Amino acid sequence: MSITATNEAVAAPEAGSLQRKISWTGAFWIASGVPALVLFSIGAIGATVGAPAWFVWILSIIFGFIQAFSYAEIAGLFPHKSGGASVYGAIAWVRYGKLLAPFSVWCNWLAWSPVLSIGSGLAAGYVLSILFAPDAAINTWQLTLVDLGWLKAGLALRINATFLLGAVLLLVAFAIQHRGISQTAKVQVILGVVALLPLILIGLVPLITGDVLAANLGPFAPLAKDEAGKVIAGEWNMAGLTLMAGGLFIAAWSTYGFETAVCYTREFRDPKTDTFKAILYSGLLCIFVFTIVPISFQGVLGLGQLVTPAVVDASGTVTTPAVYSGILSADIYSGMGVASAMADMIKGGPIVHTVIVVMLILALMLAIITSMAGSSRTLYQASVDGWLPKYLSHVNENGAPTRAMWTDLGFNLILLMMSDYVFILAISNVCYILFNFLNLNSAWMHRIDRPTWERPFKAPVWLIGMGTVLAYVNLFLLGMGADIWGAGTLVTGLIVSAAIIPVFLFRHYVTDKGQFPAAMMEDMHLKAEPGASTRAGMLPYLALVAGAVVIIVARSIAVY
């Protein structure tokens, strides 16, 4: 595509397409839901890694911030497109293999979409915790539909109060999104101010009052337990490093998430300047929240100790799990008790406790709306580009991709019925790491294949290089740490990510008769620069082979 054609597309969007109605501040507020993702796994990471958990968050957000500059550059290449960083990266890969591009977009959607189900499930749990006692009938009844114990012990599809209330919250988020991007941004500003305030208070107040104890942040050693189940400091052997890899693996799902700020390039009034500003300031906000909140949370609660030992029958089977205090408690690990624990950190009495929990519920709603906005636009653009079924490319009179939003909603209603949200998050993150690997490598591929294209933001070469290195670091963390969250996590994630193959083959070869849409052909830039498809030569394929080797090696040395 020529720069002239791109500029014309920016200036005059077609009727029935996404509309240019927001500036970078609108995208910033939509992406402001990302800091709330700390609520999803802060307990699980602490209960798995141990004392170094606070450092895991800091290191992970630094990784995410470095990677964001590669995404900002490739987004600027396509100011007329929506759908997020995966769409921009897919254009780099498509000429090296038709399946590689839709694979990247699919993995990005599978990473972002479950925020809806996990977030609404946690928010519903928070609401129920305010209104009812833990042993109340409304909190204990459950109708099991399908037993998924063959996939992970204790996993099932069920209907309970959490599912029903979570479904209502999803419909509320859908109604907000239905009015279009500009109205969504306005709602996000209100929610953002209200929802970010408790996270900031939770991070700062304990530091100011001196309630953060240095002893709770150390010793800097991985979590271990003796034969009796008591918590002890582990060693930095391969088992300890595997725990650390598992923590960094799962944290990436939250800390890398502010790349969603580039999902709205197609809807920016001035994409040349708005794209970079949106991702820069979103990243700075995330660095702040993902640093102070984990430090304060762990510094106040502490890792915890054994309260009641596990009960074991004559055959050696655990009939009643051990009970722990602090971050190691079961409700902190699952996330359901995180809001209450954070509210207690403010020490303001019952009224303040309730107010903080309500505000954290709004923070989760902020994250849900952020995810629905980004993931639905990924589906929309993937349909427009010829990766996914055509029906997803519809938008309503407000410019909202409603069919993609309905698809998102239906998929997440199924996930909402699952009994283990941490497992869903881990499988989702397998897909997210695969997407990040392809996308970070697409930055240097675009440099080679599109050397003369205008780049509103051009990252320094060293940052592109660091992003490429981190692409392989992420794969190493995937191979080594994914199965910390369940023995079938890595394999299940790979199978789910491969589900795009039959979907794409049907769209491309049955619906489109083996041809990409005309606009996609222009984006591939085959006619304007003959030979562009061969400039990178074998390098993309070597990058893929190296990635596979990294995963295999990392998995082989992991110790669980």
Please describe the structure with a list of short key phrases separated by commas or semicolons.
560 residues; globular; 8 strands; disordered N terminus; mainly alpha
Q: Can you put this structure into words, describing what you see?
A:
Helix content is 63%, strand content 4%. With 560 residues, it is mostly helical. The protein has a two-stranded antiparallel sheet. A two-stranded antiparallel sheet has the order 3-4. Strands 5-8 form a two-stranded antiparallel ribbon. α4 crosses α11 and α7 packs antiparallel against α15.
Number of helices: 22
- How do the helices and strands follow one another from N- to C-terminus? HHHHHHHHEEHHEEHHEEEEHHHHHHHHHH
Biggest sheet, strands in spatial order?
Answer: 1-2
> Termini distance?
50 Å
* Share of residues in helices: 55-70%
List the helices and strands and how they pair.
Layout: H1 3-11, H2 24-31, H3 38-49, H4 53-76, H5 85-93, H6 100-112, H7 115-131, H8 137-140, E1 143-147, E2 156-159, H9 161-177, H10 181-209, E3 223-225, E4 231-233, H11 238-255, H12 271-301, E5 306-308, E6 311-312, E7 318-320, E8 323-324, H13 330-334, H14 338-346, H15 349-384, H16 402-416, H17 421-449, H18 461-481, H19 489-497, H20 500-511, H21 518-524, H22 539-557
Antiparallel strand pairs: 1-2, 3-4, 5-8, 6-7
